[in-house]
Amino acid sequence: MGMKMIVAVHVVAMAAAVCARDLNQTMAATAQGWRPRGRPLATALIVFGDSIVDPGNNNNLPVTRMKANHAPYGKDFAGHVATGRFSNALLPPDLIAQRLNLKQLLPPWLNVDHTPEDLLTGVSFASGATGFDPLTPQIVNVFTMDQELEFFDTYRQKLVGLVGEQETRRIIDGAFFFVCTATDDVANTYFMTPYRAFDYDIPAYVDLLLVGAEAFLRNTSARGAKKMGFTGMPPIGCVPSQRTIGGGVQRRCDARRNYAALMYNKALQELIGRLNADPGFHTHVVYFNIYDIIYELAVHGERWGFTEMTRGCCGSGLIEVTQLCNTQYMGVCDDVDKHVFFDSYHPTQRAYEIIVDHIFKYYVPLMHL
């Protein structure tokens, strides 16, 4: 390896170490003073998926643009720090961890130095912009769902090193597994690139995604997951960027994207039903319907106190997301809590709070925690 390459690798490693140190300090300061409201409802929270549940695993990926570790992301996080969460502050895994009485923030698996308590109570392995279509993470250079499972294997080994095999089994047995992905498959890979739409109509593409979903469910079950919440797709056509791209001059919700989401959701529910009825499948999976509540917020948000449902808070709100949503180039709204979406793709923390409340009211009780 040449001297320039050695120096470059050293600089990247130093930058990652500094980033991890700063992020650790920020998370510790944020969590300071937080107290659970009751007994823990699960031993740990284990999360897989995409940007909705990625708290910073993509931060140091060198070749992807799918990152949120720059302002205005984190605008309302403690210290206004952009941790890598694709929102103005907290994500669903943070809010779920709080509702489970585990901790205030769910850390990423990568880019932070974990305390033993971090590992014992769970982490997120999610990678923004990934999906069940193998092509989706390849296009944008992020981690695959299979790689997320490999991260889990390493995590489990670390648990064994901390507390031994028996206690590790108890933690995994009692953990709340949460999976949220597939939206990028439809919104980006199918509708924004020529690679799939030419060979697959929407029903055939949904079948392709279900192959990946079933493989992931079986592989996670084989690793010891006992209780899992598995989200369907949101109304993709009502997301601001998809309104801009597919909703015509008036930026209506795009019917084709929503049709694909509904078709996937129906097929996913049928798959989950079959697996739950299979004596050889040892995970109790609960389907989380997020389509209806997000459609309600995106179309009738005024009922919930929102005044802007069709634009994000970042820049024009029409198309800006990830690297395009950057305060170096554009401003950000002052009334974040009045917006359903922070950028043109991801909800605000306030919207996430409503979504998580909905999940805990209607679906988490079915998990029998």
From TrEMBL:
One Pfam family from the record: Lipase_GDSL
Name of the protein in question: GDSL esterase/lipase EXL3
CDD domains linked to this entry: SGNH_plant_lipase_like
Endpoints of the signal sequence: 1-20
Keywords: Signal
Similarity annotation: Belongs to the 'GDSL' lipolytic enzyme family.
Gene Ontology MF: a single term: hydrolase activity, acting on ester bonds
